[in-house]
Amino acid sequence: MSQTTPGQRFRDAVAAEQPLQVVGAINANHALLAKRAGFKAIYLSGGGVAAGSLGIPDLGITGLDDVLTDVRRITDVCDLPLLVDVDTGFGSSAFNVARTVKSMIKFGAAAIHIEDQVGAKRCGHRPNKEIVSQQEMVDRIKAAVDARTDDSFVIMARTDALAVEGLEAALDRAAACVEAGADMVFPEAITELQMYKTFAARVRAPILANITEFGATPLFTTEELASADVGLVLYPLSAFRAMNKAAENVYTAIRRDGTQQNVIDTMQTRMELYERIDYHAFEQHLDALFAQKKS
């Protein structure tokens, strides 16, 4: 494991890869797969925790401890810097935001993004979102920054204002958040490539593009996003969606056919799984311990 802090590793990755691809990892196993594929940073989605770990909608139902459980499981086995979705901060006061930040640092996260929706939040690509005042969002950022026990830990401000109040309001909010101490900016549900360039010019901080499937934002390529001065590209649930579809297909086939033989070629093999989680190294260590006891 690296001796630098997770936050510093995240900042270094943003500086080294332009734009930095940040891929969603729904669990610890997927974090290892993302690292194996060559990614330099990973992401834990709030919607992913809700749907994947709890089987409920992303409507502000999950709590801090739900997310921390998945954070710890990921950071225990994977040293890639982890960006975590903390929704609105898991509470209505600055004390809640501060607790969230301190807990994320303690559990090994590298960065968080905190948003300006009301407590009864919705997915950023759904209609009828409501946002708090600009001042309340600025206060959330100030509380997060003040609570840092590690200066390298990244505070990212997400704004959903584009869909609610328009581009100028979203730009004003983003700029105000950076002035309040946010390190990076996440403008949600962007509809045009040029908008990213406008945000980057206005806030003078790294901009994250959320390239989620089936949402309001087109599936821009890294080359296109680089031309628009985007600093980070997020793929929050791509592998999760594929995993879910594959699981449904397997369940349907087994129930229909009375066997898994017709879908076996779609599965990861036992040996592939063992290789991905370093099974044999654990087994060899266990064998060595047993050998010592016998001697």
Automatic annotation (TrEMBL):
<feature type="binding site">
    <location>
        <position position="85"/>
    </location>
    <ligand>
        <name>Mg(2+)</name>
    </ligand>
</feature>
<feature type="binding site">
    <location>
        <position position="241"/>
    </location>
    <ligand>
        <name>substrate</name>
    </ligand>
</feature>
<dbReference type="InterPro" id="IPR040442">
    <property type="entry name" value="Pyrv_kinase-like_dom_sf"/>
</dbReference>
<comment type="similarity">
    <text>Belongs to the isocitrate lyase/PEP mutase superfamily. Methylisocitrate lyase family.</text>
</comment>
<dbReference type="GO" id="GO:0046421">
    <property type="term" value="F:methylisocitrate lyase activity"/>
</dbReference>
<feature type="binding site">
    <location>
        <begin position="210"/>
        <end position="212"/>
    </location>
    <ligand>
        <name>substrate</name>
    </ligand>
</feature>
<comment type="pathway">
    <text>Organic acid metabolism; propanoate degradation.</text>
</comment>
<dbReference type="InterPro" id="IPR015813">
    <property type="entry name" value="Pyrv/PenolPyrv_kinase-like_dom"/>
</dbReference>
<protein>
    <recommendedName>
        <fullName>2-methylisocitrate lyase</fullName>
        <ecNumber>4.1.3.30</ecNumber>
    </recommendedName>
</protein>
<keyword id="KW-0460">Magnesium</keyword>
<keyword id="KW-0456">Lyase</keyword>
<feature type="binding site">
    <location>
        <position position="270"/>
    </location>
    <ligand>
        <name>substrate</name>
    </ligand>
</feature>
<dbReference type="InterPro" id="IPR039556">
    <property type="entry name" value="ICL/PEPM"/>
</dbReference>
<comment type="function">
    <text>Catalyzes the thermodynamically favored C-C bond cleavage of (2R,3S)-2-methylisocitrate to yield pyruvate and succinate.</text>
</comment>
<feature type="binding site">
    <location>
        <begin position="123"/>
        <end position="124"/>
    </location>
    <ligand>
        <name>substrate</name>
    </ligand>
</feature>
<dbReference type="InterPro" id="IPR012695">
    <property type="entry name" value="PrpB"/>
</dbReference>
<comment type="subunit">
    <text>Homotetramer; dimer of dimers.</text>
</comment>
<feature type="binding site">
    <location>
        <position position="87"/>
    </location>
    <ligand>
        <name>Mg(2+)</name>
    </ligand>
</feature>
<feature type="binding site">
    <location>
        <position position="158"/>
    </location>
    <ligand>
        <name>substrate</name>
    </ligand>
</feature>
<comment type="function">
    <text>Involved in the catabolism of short chain fatty acids (SCFA) via the 2-methylcitrate cycle (propionate degradation route). Catalyzes the thermodynamically favored C-C bond cleavage of (2R,3S)-2-methylisocitrate to yield pyruvate and succinate via an alpha-carboxy-carbanion intermediate.</text>
</comment>
<feature type="binding site">
    <location>
        <position position="188"/>
    </location>
    <ligand>
        <name>substrate</name>
    </ligand>
</feature>
<keyword id="KW-0479">Metal-binding</keyword>
<feature type="binding site">
    <location>
        <begin position="45"/>
        <end position="47"/>
    </location>
    <ligand>
        <name>substrate</name>
    </ligand>
</feature>
<dbReference type="InterPro" id="IPR018523">
    <property type="entry name" value="Isocitrate_lyase_ph_CS"/>
</dbReference>
<dbReference type="Pfam" id="PF13714">
    <property type="entry name" value="PEP_mutase"/>
</dbReference>
